[in-house]
Amino acid sequence: MTTLRNPAADTAEEIAALLGDLDRPCWIIRHDGRVAATADEGLAARGRILAAVGPLPPERLGDSAFRAAHGVRAAYAAGAMANGIASPELVIAMAEAGYLASYGAAGVPPAGVEAALAELSARLRAKPYAVNLIHSPSEPALERAIVDACLRHDVQCVEASAFMDLTAEVVRYRAAGLAVNPQGGIEIRHRIIAKVSRVEVAELFLRPAPQRLVTPLVESGRITPAQGDLVTRVPMADDITAEADSGGHTDRRPLVVLLPELIAARDRVAGGVPATAIVRIGAAGGIGTPDAAATAFAMGAAYIVTGSVNQSAREAQQCEATKRLLATAQFADCVMAPSSDMFELGVQVQVLRRGTMFATRAQRLYDLYRAYDGIDAIPAEVRGDLEATLFRRPLQTVWQDCVAFFTERDPAQLVSAERDPKARMALVFRWYLGLSSGWSIRGEAERAADYQIWCGPAMGGFNTWAAGSYLAEPANRAVADIADQLMTGAAYLTRVAQLRTAGVRLPAAVARYLPRPMEE
User: Fold this and answer.
1) HEC states along 314-370?
2) Is 98 left (phi over 0), alpha (psi -120 to 50) or beta?
3) Which end of the chain is more exposed for a tag (fewer CB within 10 A), N or C?
4) Handedness of CA 509, 514, 518, 519 (dihedral sign)
5) What are the pLDDT digits (tens) for 480-504?
6) Which residues, given as ranges, of the chain have pLDDT below 70?
């Protein structure tokens, strides 16, 4: 092993400065009987070169095809955070800084999505952005409404999340953007980034659309016969994000297992479907530090996606009290709780445990749903406690609220609920789960104990890394600056790792990258 002794850079800080100059190479040489680190090409030429790292600007990390396809400067994206937490302001800030970000359309009423997309299309024009298309098995009308809005506003990229199977709507979006170019190839104008945590779901997006979904779309006139033909000849997704231990919907898969599995699945499917070979595999979940970002790229991620860490950023649509809770979170301060959108299926989301009782209360509702056939079957004293603590109103009043809400949003939900007491109970319980994230977003102080704050362990990792720096204060957390810091740190640590792999022993302090304002 080579040890740096009395290098040209005399201190760990000076060595770090050499490696931190990402636009210049750095050589480890033996010169005049000593080992030195230098960025001076002339000095390197006069000595014996023991190891070297080339320039590595953050923009070179990941797959250049991702940058080209999406028109961005770095292989980094800010993923969607539902209920508009990933706000138009957040998306615009990222786009103007040359990054991709996805608007959090999930859970936003159709009118709100319409207004947000109108703002994005007007302010960004040709700049890149994406819109979240979340699978909504209990409310298919919402999935259709988001696709309709994306088509009206010529949205060229969607981030498809929480899908367990392909649906007609995601196929319709893909097909509507396909055409034959002058060279006879297929032009893809509607890009799809599929966020998945299971190989079997990834394979659905790696392959072309199945005929079972295409034929009804063509027969109903929702896509043309030509589009129906083209969508069976290209993969459903351009990019597939391996979603590991993330906030919100997650299977809490370890990234070091999931990412290689999806890369292997892509290569396997490409053996029979050659067009699949160009699908890029990215990484998300648990990425909240430069070390995590560098690790993901080292494992072969074409790009990385952050989520939880952006929720405490200035541009995120969260109240200040919630942002401060997030800024104090540690990596173990997360817990799983029943989800609102897939409550009946038992699907869970990862939320912040610190400072809120939401997870415990939501689990109680799910346990009652499993145990009883309807609200009337729940013991009177239990119903009374629910009305006093969770709902703070009679359950009959909550049901009337549900009727008013779904009459406007998705009337089909009420048809089954009128016939089935258990379905009605699910809607009433979903009232609490659905509103709890809104209480957090709006900062309703009297409901602080019920805040549903989607969060993964990356938030705790980020807070530990940022402690003592300017990023420790939520007011200083700008979403594009977070991206810059993570990507710059990832490039720096990649160069450190390259030297270590070559056998160079560096001072321990050199192997850390701490947040520093970009102007320094």
Assistant:
1) CCCCCCHHHHHHHHCCCCCCEEEEECCCCHHHCCEEEEECCCCCHHHHHHHHHHHHH
2) left
3) C
4) negative
5) 999 999 999 999 999 999 999 999 9
6) 1-10, 519-520
